[in-house]
Amino acid sequence: MKRVNSLLVVFFCLFIGPFAKAQVTTEPAVPNASQSVKLIYDASKGTTGLKDCNCDVYIHIGAVTEGPQSNTWSIVPFSWGTADPKAKMTKVDGESNLYTYELVPNDFFDNPNGLTIYRLGLVFRNADGSKEGKTSSNEDFFVDLAQGFTVNITNPSTSQVSLEVGESFDFKAETSATADISFELDGVEVEKAESVNSLTYQLTANEAGTFTLTAKATAGGETDSESITISVFAPSEKEELPSGARLGINYISDTEVILALQAPGKRIAHVIGDFNDWKILPAYQMKRTPDGEIFWLKISGLTPKQEYIFQYLIDISIRIGDPYADKVSDPFHDQEIIEQGRYPGLKPYPSGKTEFQATYLQTAQEPYNWKNISYTKVDPEELVIYELLVRDFDDRRTYKAVLDRLDYLEELGVNAIQLMPIGEFEGNLSWGYNPSFFFAPDKFYGTKNDLKQLIDEAHGRGIMVILDMVLNHAFGQSPFVRLYNDGDYGAPTEDNPWFNRVAKHPFNVGYDFNHESEYTASFVDSVNNYWLSEYKFDGFRFDLSKGFTQVNSGNDVGVWSQYDPSRIKIWKRIYDRIKSHHPDAYVILEHLSANDEEKELADYGLLFWGNMNFDFREMAKGENKDFSWAYFGNRGWKNPNLVAYQESHDEERVMWETLNFGKTSPINLRQLENAINRNQLLTAFYFGIPGPKMIWQFGEFGYDEELNNDRLGIKPTRWNYLNDPQRERLFKLYQEMIRLKKDHEVFNNPEKTTLNLSGSVKSIILEHPDLDVVMHGNFGIGNVGNVPVAFPNPGTWYNYFTGEELQVSGSSVNFSFRPSEFYLFTSEPLPRPEPGILQEDYVTYIPGEELPIGDFKVYPNPTTGRLNVQFPEGMRAANYRIIDMSGRLMLSGQQSQIQNNLEFDLGNFKNGIYIFEAFDNRRVLHQRFIKK
Fold first, then answer.
1. How far, in Å, are 36, 159, 751 from residue 28 at the CA level?
2. Which of 487, 533, 680, 901 is most deeply buried (CB count within 10 A of its CB)?
């Protein structure tokens, strides 16, 4: 059998693979599927779940039959979590953590179809499976099996090596049976031995060049070989980075750049790209700083304004783009962008010349001409943030499409937009929480100047723009991951300066940054300053900020959420660094940790997401919840730095809960009109709690698509909902509550806040020298009569939505409420909103018009004594009542089955404004009328 594996490039002698060999070894070193093999497991290495366990250790083993590179276990003989004596390993005498297991793979597995067993998959456990041993990256072990006689070059274990001139390296070949073994270097025999199982050859690299080393072995007439290519380079020239140059792309002139890459511990770096036809040339071998930290190279002769795609080639094996570049060339997804015309003039990826992600450089770029550079940022407590995903906010899915919707956002009244992550992420259609390049806007949404124009135009309208920043983790395409990791897209190795090999906390995705590393700290500061400076973002919402810790909580959410002094120190440092350059930047954390930790950081100045979605979803269904945790004062914070929210991108929609799971009796919340009333109630009280606010896109008109039917998938926009008068009522209610918050300090930072949010009738009282506000609402789903509701002082109060006056003589007034009804009173008269917001404004009669079948009519209006009511078809046998503006019941009854017209004598009613209500189990109709 002849086997040649000729590899083009390889690492020097810092290997990626030996960790697995140290945790699981075999005898013989090259095991054969048809011969006995002893597996030796060291429980003190890897995830160490079984280290010093003083327990029986069992093997969980599987045969891999789909191919030599597959990780799929096809045949699994043992069940997990059972004390199967056949799976029990043998403990090595005198060793607390060494265990062995012997088998002949081809005989061991039940394999009636005679499938080839290419590999063994392994995990180790105690009897019940509560403890386990895996690789240090928390993955399965795999042992490759020879098929017949085989020789393998086992050192280097990855079959990859590169050397500098003068460096030596010991190569080792091992066989699956005793054999005659030799090494040949470019066809010349340099080492041999007879009747052995292994052979070592030391090579000293005396000259630069490319050489082929071949191990050959013969046993019993069978022959096998394996070859690798050794690349030898002259040592990197050592020279300090030129003054003023930073990591990344430094534009020196219209024809020159300095490229600088931080890669401690690496030996050789080349620049390859359009400017040298992607060839590995001595003139493009990068210099190295004396401390070994940074590779750099000055490139001259570039054409002004021309785009060049390029990469770094590290140790002749790792191809990466510049991690600080602002534009990425992607081999997998750029063609789609080109075909859809989403990015004018985008160059195709240089297929056939390289692989993996590359990046762009371009001298003499035209700077963006900012127009709106003088604008005033609102105080944090005044923020009304509109969170949006560029992908799903408009069907065009571009920055320009969001810009075209700024009129809408301005009409709604928000003063800040929070963009979900727009940094270059893996794929084209994503939420953006899978970042790879942290300085590049994703091209699927448009150009970087499209993004700048969006921000510029928003600033011109007084709308701040906040960026959702993802710095807890990066994904496998990140250059910082790929510089030190397993294989092409595997887990970071232990020597990675930026990342943990295994995440320190639950809910991690991608690869976890080590925020105690000086490399990560410097990188984070660079990222933050870049977006605030280059794009003029007004601040950040930091994703998964609780993950910025090296305290290892594993999968224990409780431990992870506890007070963490080291995490507090990390966040204070980041915050101080941001504020030192951008003192008015907003810093918002998605922390969701213990209150004592959040309080300390909030009092320091940071803002926090406050997830109230569960409570609001429950109330949306008709349940009663106390949501006073949405108020910063109830958390003991001294600053109003809590961005409480009903909805965010992570949770199900409140309106979806109402329409699908709302209670149906005594009032049916699943009917749209009643659902709108319910969500108006929630929204009014939500805005009544002082502090910054956030709306998740389309919540303002009751978006009701389920999140988790395709959690990360594209969701329809539903802009047509604004054509529905019912949903428009909700939108208008949002407008009014935002207007009140923007115009009156009492909604942002009152001198006194009184919350009564535990009962079914809830109240908020806000007191401020300029204006007092009282809100009362019925969170039950039945009518409530004669309930005393408090006012902070007697006098005249003004119903904001009707303009009507209420005389309060004591400390409370008795009110009656229909389901989801609420009142908002102010101590001073304010301009009345346009009608058409509340339900009683929605069902109206225009005098002189013929009444269509199905309409509701209360007439004459005004009346001097007689009142006629016509009920719509389908609402016979409805209940009715008349109440005054204080909610006092004046008259009630039930309409008969056959009669849909009633007449009332109101001669004994005082002059004033009254409400006629008609209601059944499906809907409630209201009509105001005046008695003269």
1. 9, 19, 79
2. 680
Q: What angle do CA 210, 211, 215 make, to 5 degrees?
A: 150
DSSP category for residue 150:
-
Q: How many CB atoms lie within 10 A of CB 753?
A: 21
8-state DSSP, 693: E
Closest listed residue to residue 790, CA positions, set 813, 757, 822: 813
The answer to whether 151-233 and 746-826 have equal CATH topology is yes
Please determine, for residue 12, whether its predicted confidence score (pLDDT) is greater than 60: no
> Which CATH number fits the domain 248-363, given the four candidates 1.20.1630.10, 2.30.30.30, 2.40.370.10, 2.60.40.10?
2.60.40.10
Q: Which amino acid is at 197?
A: N
CA distance 94 to 56: 15
Structure tokens, 488:
């092409």
Instruction: Please state the φ and ψ torsions of residue 37, each to the nearest 5 degrees.
Output: -135, 135
- As a whole number of angstroms, the distance between CA 54 and CA 43 comes to 11
> What's residue 912's pLDDT?
81
- Band (pLDDT 50/70/90 cuts) for residue 861 is confident
Cα Dmax for the chain? 122
Q: How confident is the model over 516-540, as pLDDT tens digits?
A: 999 999 999 999 999 999 999 999 9
Beta bridge partners of 474: 511
Q: What CATH class is the domain 24-144?
A: mainly beta
Does residue 139 register a pLDDT over 90?
A: no
Return the pLDDT at 3: 35
Pairing state between β 511-512 and 539-542: unpaired
| CATH 3.10.450.50 given to domain 746-826 | no
CB atoms inside a 10 Å sphere around CB 358: 28
Could you tell me which of 38, 42, 57 has the C-alpha nearest to residue 136?
A: 42
Q: Out of 2.60.120.600, 3.40.30.10, 3.40.190.10, 2.60.40.10, which CATH number does the structure's domain 151-233 have?
A: 2.60.40.10
Whole-model pTM: value is 0.80
Residue with tokens 């303009």: 803
Residue 779: strand, helix, or coil: coil
Top-confidence residue, 855 or 389: 389
Q: Does domain 857-931 have CATH number 3.30.420.40?
A: no
The one-letter code for the residue type at 750 is P
Mean pLDDT of the chain: 92
Q: Where are the domains of the chain?
A: 24-144, 151-233, 248-363, 380-737, 746-826, 857-931
CA R_g for the chain = 35
Burial 39-64 (b: 16+ CB within 10 A, else e): bebbbebbbbbbeeeeeebbbbbbbb
pLDDT of 707 reads: 95
Runs of H (alpha helix) within 628-713: 654-661, 672-688
Say which residue the tokens 């990469």 belong to. 311
Distance between CA atoms of residues 543 and 553, nearest Å: 18
Q: 380-737: which CATH architecture?
A: Alpha-Beta Barrel (3.20)
Percent of the chain topping pLDDT 90: 80
Alpha carbon distance 304, 55 (integer Å): 69
Its sign, for the CA torsion 676, 659, 390, 343, is negative
